[in-house]
Design a protein that fits this description.
17 strands, 12 helices, C5-Methyltransferase, 7-stranded mixed sheet, globular, 2 domains, single chain
Amino acid sequence: MILDLFAGPGGWSHALTVLGARDIGLEWDEWACKTRARAGQLTIRTDVARYPAWIFSGRILGLIASPPCQAWSMAGKRLGLVDQPLVHQAVADLAAGRDTREQLLGACADERSLLAAEPMRYLHALNLVGEPEWVVMEEVPDVLPLWRQYAAILRAWGFSVWTGILNAADYGVPQTRRRAILLASRVRTAQPPPPTHATAAEPESLFGPGRDRWVSMAEALGWGATDRPVPTVCAGGGPGGGPEPFPSGSRKTLTDARDRGAWTPHPDSEIVLASRREGSGWAARHGARENRPADAPAPTFTAEAHRWSWSLRSNNQSNATVRRADEPAGTLFFGHRANECTWVADTTSGVPDGEHRWVPAPIKITAQEAGVLQSFPADYPWQGNKGQTFSQIGNAVPPRLAAHLLAPNLNKPFNPDDFTLAA
């Protein structure tokens, strides 16, 4: 079997399904387990750090591991960097058959840091019986030094190993998500899969067809087609709650503003007046919201005069990545309110100087959109409330990247067309 440690909501598992294989996942999060169940994936709900590794001896073809990244991620406090010497010590001890986790855990600034050493506990138990045949591991870039330590140990056990940083956008994921990768094999030379995409499309050469252009958010979400909407304004806020951009119960799309010519919001809708060109000074001079008489007609957005340009803001922080819809998204991460992703609009294009630019309040990204930008299918059966769902999505491995990494180990042909994103 293929063993998937820290299996999450099924990024690796969905990739294996596309490739015609299956894994068994170990996962402790209740809602990730429910998502996996709805997706038809085999799961043992357990704490990876407590589950006995010897149970799998004699049964494992491949081992996959994506330890939780919260202790190391730039989205958090990054206490994993403080704990790094302790994690390296744990890996060295486990590789030698010594379990010092309990002593080291008490010295960790973030108890989650030590989870990055757990794959070595399983690898040591499996290596005693000559398993697994191959290993694939993934984490945030700051974990690369730890993967190099794993690599040195695995080479001593007879593996060919490659470690490095890969960008998911180079493999057709509509997101520039950079990750530290470890690839190891007992039966073939470990090497990264050749990239299929680049920042700009490449022409065909003597060596074959060139790489395609990075997949944009608009392309992945199906925007631009006559039957595809631009962001949907839905009541209920986003992950973590928060104010709604429109009154409770209202559901509006901005389709007409982009594709059909005009969109008239509900007369009671609260519209933020802003100008991306003039910045916050315009709002300060004129007020954050327009005081319109109750019986006055609502403003109308006309595509001929007001051309909407949508961008995705990765979080609420001042240094947030903002990408246009015709580009891949920045790295998506969720988990607390500061990490809310929102669509923001710029209507300055084609608007004469001196005219007001009517810009709606930022629109929170939907779970379906976020999942698609992670390369999950639009109908993936996410379970849980908004916060639980977004947390699963942010922590997941993009299935399309996972398929590129797994296919050589399975001797399976990988057809990127098997990944359907927008419904």
